[in-house]
C-alpha cells in the first residue's frame, strides 16, 4: 500500500529506485560459559574466514567504484584478521576462561582499542583503533548470524535508507548506483545534506521513522524538492513524479543558459556568486555551473578522507589543484574545521556533552599547532599558483584571530627565508559564525581582510538549536530579524573599513534570503555549485534599489521569520 513519509527537503531532485537499508544490526550478546573450547574456536574461525572473504569482495568493488585510496581501509581490516596476535588472543581466552567466542572477541578487541587509543604520540597506532572496532563488528555479526550492511557492495540502483549518515558515510556512496538517500534524523544544514547537494543526489532527512517504515527492496520515490518519500507508489504517483522530474529538468536546462554570464542585477550591479566545495573532485561541478570563484573550500574533508593526518605535500597538491583549476578566480580556503559532526578516526577527540560547543575548528588548530602549521605551509606554497584567500573557522574572539594570523605570518616568513615562492597578496579572513564575533564585527573588521558569514552555525548558535536535530529544525530561521540584524551589522562593519563581506552558509543560496542580502549590500554569495545558476537567474530579475528598503523593513519592522518570508514573497510576486 502506498505510504508517504514526510521529511525535510535536503537536496533537490527526484529519484525512484529500490530501498537499501543501511541500518546497523543489534550486535548485543550474552556472556556464556562453554564446555567445548575447540568447537567454539572453530565457530570463531568460520566467522573470521567469512569476514575475510567478504572484505576481499568489498575491497575489490570499492577499488573499482571509489578508487584505490578508499579501498585501502579494507586491506587494513584484512591484516587485523590475519594477525595471530589478535586472533590468537581471542582463541586463548576462549580456552583459558571457557567463555563464548563473542565475549572473548569483545574483551580482546576492547583491550587492543584502549592500548592503541592510549598511544597519544603515535597517530598511526591511534588510527588502528578504528580499524579494530570496525573489523570486530564484522566478525561479531557473523558470530551472531546477523547481516551487516555493506554499502561498498551495492551493484544496482538504490535509494539508501538510514537512521543517519555521517559525512564519511556520504563520501563513500557510489553515485553510479545510489540515486538518493533518506534518513530518520538530520537537518538541512547538517554536513551530509550539504554533501548530497554537491553530489547532486536528491535527499530527504529528518523523517523520524523511515528506517521503520521502509523495507529492503521496496520501491521508493524520493522527492527531494518537497521533502517526501513515497513507499510502494501507485502508477498514478509514478506518473505524477515523472512529470515533476521533467519540469525540474526543464527548469535546470533554462538556468544552464546562464552558465557563461556574469551575475548582474536588473539595475546593472555585479555580484560574485561563488561555490562551496569539499574536495578537489568538486572542481568540475564548480566550473560546469559557471561559478565566479570558490567561496568556501571545506578542507576538513581532505583530512576525513585520509587514513592519517595528510602530509604537507599531499595537502599542497590538493590546494594547488583547486587554486590552479580556478584559473585566477578567487579561492577561499578554510582551515580545518574538525569537531561537531565531523570526526577523524586517527585524531580521537575527548567525549563531549556538546560537541558543537566544544573542542573544534580553530580551537583545535591553535592547540595542536603542528597540524595547523603543516596546513598553513601547504596553503602558502599553493598560493603561488592562483588567487588564494584563507579564512579561519569558528573565530569567537579577536585574540583567536590574532593568534591564528601570527602563526600564519611565522610560517610565511620561514618559507620566504628558505626561498619558497609564496604570494604576497593572500587575504586573511574569518568565518562569521559565532554570535559573539558577529556582535563585535566592527572591531574585527579593522583587522581582517574579509568576513564570510557562516549562517549554518550562526543560526544554530544564535537560536540555540542544534543544526542536525530534526526536533528543533523549526528554529532554523534565516529570516528571523535577530539573524538579519547580525548579518546587516557584519556587512556594514566590513564596508566601513573598506573590506568585503560574503556568505558561505546555506542561506546564501536561498531564494527568500538573496533579495534581503542584496538589499543589505552583501558582496559575495557562496553556495552549493548546483544552486549557482538558480541564484544567478533570480538576481537578474531583481533591482537593488528597491531591495534596500525591503531589507530595512525586514530588519526593523518585522518580528518573525514568517513575516519576512511573506514580505519577500509578496515583493517577488508583485
Ligand atoms: C558554512 C558554514 O560552515 P560549516 O557548514 O562547514 O559549519 C556555516 O557554519 O555556515
Ligand atoms: Mg560552520
From TrEMBL:
Record keywords: Cytoplasm, Kinase, Magnesium, Metal-binding, Phosphotransferase system, Sugar transport, Transferase, Transport
Compartmental location: Cytoplasm
Record's keyword annotation contains Lyase: no
Coiled coil feature spans: none
Enzyme class of the recorded protein, top EC level: transferase
Domain called PEP-utilising enzyme mobile: residue spans: 155-227
Domain annotation Phosphotransferase system enzyme I N-terminal: ranges: 6-128
Superkingdom as given in the UniProt entry: Bacteria
Cofactor: Mg(2+)
Keyword Magnesium: yes
The EC number(s) this enzyme carries: 2.7.3.9
Catalytic activity entry: L-histidyl-[protein] + phosphoenolpyruvate = N(pros)-phospho-L-histidyl-[protein] + pyruvate
Residue span(s) of domain PEP-utilising enzyme C-terminal: 252-542
MF term (GO), any: phosphoenolpyruvate-protein phosphotransferase activity
InterPro entries: PEP-util_enz_mobile_dom, PEP-utilizing_PTS_enzyme, PEP_util_AS, PEP_util_C, PEP_util_CS, Phosphohistidine_dom_sf, PTS_EI, PTS_EI-like
UniProt signal peptide: none
The protein's role, per its UniProt record: General (non sugar-specific) component of the phosphoenolpyruvate-dependent sugar phosphotransferase system (sugar PTS). This major carbohydrate active-transport system catalyzes the phosphorylation of incoming sugar substrates concomitantly with their translocation across the cell membrane. Enzyme I transfers the phosphoryl group from phosphoenolpyruvate (PEP) to the phosphoryl carrier protein (HPr).
Database matches in PANTHER family: PHOSPHOENOLPYRUVATE-PROTEIN PHOSPHOTRANSFERASE (PTHR46244)
Family indicated by similarity: Belongs to the PEP-utilizing enzyme family.
Name listed for the protein in its UniProt record: Phosphoenolpyruvate-protein phosphotransferase
Source species of the chain: Companilactobacillus keshanensis
Gene, per the UniProt record: ptsP
Amino acid at each position: 500500500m502506498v505510504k508517504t513519509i514526510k521529511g525535510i527537503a535536503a537536496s533537490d531532485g527526484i529519484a525512484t529506485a529500490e530501498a537499501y537499508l543501511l541500518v546497523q544490526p543489534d550486535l548485543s550478546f550474552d556472556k556464556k560459559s562453554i564446555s567445548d573450547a575447540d568447537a567454539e574456536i572453530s565457530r570463531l574461525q568460520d566467522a573470521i574466514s567469512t569476514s575475510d572473504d567478504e572484505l576481499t569482495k568489498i575491497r575489490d568493488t570499492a577499488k573499482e567504484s571509489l578508487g584505490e585510496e578508499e579501498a585501502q581501509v579494507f586491506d587494513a581490516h584484512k591484516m587485523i584478521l590475519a594477525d595471530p596476535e589478535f586472533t590468537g588472543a581471542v582463541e586463548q581466552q576462549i580456552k583459558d576462561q571457557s567463555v563464548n567466542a563473542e565475549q572473548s572477541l569483545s574483551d580482546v578487541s576492547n583491550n587492543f582499542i584502549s592500548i592503541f587509543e592510549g598511544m597519544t604520540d603515535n597517530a598511526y597506532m591511534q588510527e588502528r583503533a578504528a580499524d579494530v572496532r570496525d573489523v570486530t563488528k564484522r566478525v561479531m555479526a557473523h558470530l551472531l548470524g546477523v547481516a551487516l550492511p555493506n554499502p561498498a557492495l551495492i551493484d544496482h540502483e538504490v535509494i539508501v535508507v538510514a537512521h543517519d549518515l555521517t559525512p564519511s558515510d556520504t563520501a563513500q556512496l557510489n553515485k553510479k548506483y545510489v540515486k538518493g538517500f533518506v534518513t530518520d534524523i538530520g537537518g538541512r544544514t547538517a554536513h551530509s545534506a550539504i554533501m548530497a547537494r554537491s553530489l547532486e543526489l536528491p535527499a530527504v532527512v529528518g523523517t523520524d521513522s523511515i528506517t521503520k517504515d521502509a523495507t529492503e527492496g521496496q520501491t521508493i520515490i524520493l522527492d527531494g524538492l518537497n521533502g517526501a518519500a513515497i513507499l510502494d507508489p501507485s502508477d498514478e504517483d509514478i506518473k505524477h513524479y515523472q512529470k515533476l522530474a521533467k519540469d525540474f529538468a526543464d527548469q535546470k536546462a533554462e538556468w544552464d543558459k546562464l552558465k557563461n554570464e556574469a551575475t548582474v542585477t536588473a539595475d546593472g550591479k555585479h555580484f560574485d556568486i561563488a561555490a562551496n566545495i569539499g574536495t578537489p573532485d568538486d572542481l568540475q561541478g564548480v566550473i560546469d555551473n559557471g561559478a565566479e570563484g570558490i567561496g568556501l573550500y571545506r578542507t576538513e574533508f581532505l583530512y576525513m578522507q585520509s587514513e592519517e593526518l595528510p602530509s604537507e605535500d599531499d595537502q599542497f597538491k590538493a590546494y594547488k589543484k583547486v587554486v590552479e583549476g580556478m584559473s585566477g578566480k578567487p579561492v577561499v580556503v578554510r582551515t580545518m574545521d574538525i569537531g561537531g559532526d565531523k570526526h577523524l578516526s586517527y585524531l580521537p577527540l575527548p567525549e563531549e556533552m556538546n560537541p558543537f560547543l566544544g573542542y573544534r575548528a580553530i580551537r583545535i588548530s591553535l592547540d595542536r599547532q603542528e597540524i595547523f602549521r603543516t596546513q598553513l605551509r601547504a596553503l602558502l606554497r599553493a598560493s603561488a599558483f592562483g588567487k588564494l584567500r584563507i579564512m579561519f573557522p569558528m573565530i569567537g574572539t579577536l585574540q583567536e584571530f590574532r593568534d591564528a594570523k601570527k602563526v600564519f605570518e611565522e610560517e610565511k616568513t620561514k618559507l620566504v627565508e628558505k626561498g619558497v615562492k609564496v604570494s604576497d597578496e593572500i587575504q586573511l579572513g574569518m568565518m562569521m559564525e559565532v554570535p559573539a564575533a558577529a556582535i563585535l564585527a566592527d572591531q574585527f573588521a579593522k583587522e581582517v581582510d574579509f568576513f564570510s558569514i557562516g549562517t549554518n552555525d550562526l543560526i544554530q548558535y544564535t537560536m540555540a538549536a542544534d543544526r542536525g536535530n530534526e526536533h528543533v529544525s523549526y528554529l532554523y530561521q534565516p529570516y528571523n530579524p535577530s539573524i538579519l540584524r547580525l548579518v546587516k551589522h557584519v556587512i556594514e562593519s566590513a564596508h566601513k573599513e573598506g573590506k568585503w563581506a560574503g556568505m558561505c552558509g546555506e542561506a546564501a543560496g536561498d531564494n527568500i534570503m538573496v533579495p534581503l542580502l542584496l538589499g543589505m549590500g552583501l558582496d559575495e554569495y557562496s553556495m552549493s555549485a548546483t544552486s549557482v545558476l538558480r541564484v544567478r537567474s533570480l538576481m537578474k530579475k531583481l533591482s537593488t534599489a528597491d531591495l534596500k528598503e525591503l531589507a530595512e523593513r525586514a530588519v526593523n519592522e518585522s518580528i518573525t521569520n514568517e513575516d519576512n518570508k511573506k514580505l519577500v514573497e509578496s515583493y517577488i510576486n508583485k
